[in-house]
TrEMBL record, chain A:
PANTHER family documented for this protein: 50S/60S RIBOSOMAL PROTEIN L14/L23, LARGE RIBOSOMAL SUBUNIT PROTEIN UL14M
Keywords noted in UniProt: Plastid, Ribonucleoprotein, Ribosomal protein, RNA-binding, rRNA-binding
Record protein name field: Large ribosomal subunit protein uL14c
Any single biological process term in GO: translation
The keyword Ribosomal protein is annotated on this UniProt entry: yes
GO cellular component terms, A-Z: cytosolic large ribosomal subunit; plastid
UniProt-annotated location(s): Plastid
Pfam families: Ribosomal_L14
TrEMBL record, chain B:
Domain of life assignment: Eukaryota
Localization in the cell: Plastid, Chloroplast
Entry-linked InterPro entries: Iojap/RsfS/C7orf30, NT_sf
HAMAP family: Iojap_RsfS (MF_01477)
Protein name as catalogued: Protein Iojap, chloroplastic
Any one GO MF annotation of this record: ribosomal large subunit binding
Database matches in NCBIfam families: rsfS_iojap_ybeB
Subunit comment: Interacts with chloroplast ribosomal protein uL14c (rpl14).
Family the entry assigns: Belongs to the Iojap/RsfS family.
Any one GO cellular component localisation term in the record: chloroplast
Length: 119, 239
């Protein structure tokens, strides 16, 4: 349940450390973003000497949420943090490796690139 | 005849004093809820509980809430009898009692069926690699990633030297897959500097040269076995 002003961790090595959500793409006001949604975010904290800098506006895909994700087989998954992966306008991830656990729902939502970069 | 006693209970740090009546009869009804929660947890993957145990009621002192209530020695309540010990020990007891495997999905195929599937995917992958080499894609590699990754069997990585070429490779692969095998890929529809076609068992990555060097998938999947593809003379890609 990510909404504007939500802080998220970054799950890749793109150079950003923390993002703040500004907008959920493809939704009107009052919608929450879940795993697999694209958000517009601003970088709140970045690793020095990387292409991404603080207060840069970028797009990201949410990969982990503290709000439960329900599956059709009635399995419920809940992570300990909210995390996102920085992507560019074409949808390619900006980092080269993804850290942490990734739900398999991302593959069905056409983010197989992110899944193939994660361990 | 009801036996009433006055006792002081502390539940969650708050102290109540009141009258307690005979509760053997009420016991089973009141404490049905935590028990059924617990059984539900056992039936799903036990390892998920390592991440988060929220449905069990812990009071601030960390012990299970039902510890305040008396339980008989019947087998039904035995698993809650040592509630002040570590949860790990509780799980060990449960495993000893019910066995390590409580629930299995019967969707595991036999090893010979798996090998047949692998061979089928391999022939599909080799066919797609041949199509890519027809369109003059560079440095086509077919990797067998099944031992590394659970979600697919084969990767095909190819380099295209321009966006129209990526488009051409993508559309040819899509057409052949649909015509001959009836498979429709998910993945990128618009040409992208990294175009991905996901056929389930086989995932095809088509890169531009800079992206291929940037993402370096071959290094990431370095432990995958490379499959030999009979290809006509291809310009070797220097990575």
């Amino acid at each position: 349940m990510i909404q504007p002003q939500t802080h998220l961790n970054v799950a890749d090595n793109s150079g950003a450390r923390e993002l703040m959500c500004i907008r959920v793409i493809g939704a009107s006001n009052h919608r929450y973003a879940h795993i697999g949604d694209v958000i517009v975010a601003v970088i709140k904290e970045a690793v020095p000497n990387t292409p991404l800098e603080r207060s840069e506006v970028i797009r990201a895909v949410i990969v982990r949420t503290s709000k439960e994700l329900k599956r059709d087989n009635s399995m419920i998954m809940r992570y300990d943090d909210n995390a996102a992966v920085v992507i560019d306008q074409e949808g390619n991830p900006k980092g080269t490796r993804i850290f942490g656990v990734i739900a398999r729902e991302l593959r069905q939502l056409n983010f197989t690139k992110i899944v193939s970069l994660s361990a | 005849m009801a036996v009433s006693t006055t006792t002081a209970l502390s539940i969650g740090g708050n102290v109540f004093s009141g009258q307690l009546r005979r509760w053997e009869l009420n016991e089973s009804k009141l404490f049905q809820k935590p028990r059924s929660h617990f059984r539900w947890l056992c039936l799903n993957d036990l390892h998920l509980l390592r991440f988060r145990i929220k449905t069990l009621n812990f009071n601030p002192r960390g012990s299970l809430l039902p510890s305040l209530y008396a339980y008989g020695k019947e087998a039904d309540d035995a698993y809650l009898s040592n509630v002040n010990e570590d949860t790990d020990e509780m799980f060990d007891d449960l495993m000893k009692k019910y066995g390590e495997v409580v629930f299995t999905k019967n969707d595991r195929k036999s090893s010979s069926a798996e090998l047949d599937d692998d061979a089928e995917s391999l022939s599909f992958a080799v066919e797609m690699a041949k199509v890519a080499s027809d369109v003059k894609a560079g440095d086509i590699r077919v990797l067998f990633v099944k031992p590394l990754v659970y979600w697919t069997r084969f990767f095909i990585i190819a380099t295209a030297f321009s966006r129209p070429q990526i488009d051409a490779i993508g559309s040819r692969i899509r057409d052949l897959a649909e015509k001959k095998y009836g498979k429709i890929p998910s993945g990128d529809t618009k040409p992208n500097s990294w175009t991905l076609l996901d056929f389930g068992d086989v995932v095809i990555h088509i890169f531009l040269p800079q992206q291929r060097a940037f993402y370096n998938l071959e290094e990431f999947y370095g432990n995958a076995t490379l499959i030999e593809v009979p290809s006509e003379n291809q310009p070797p890609f220097h990575s």
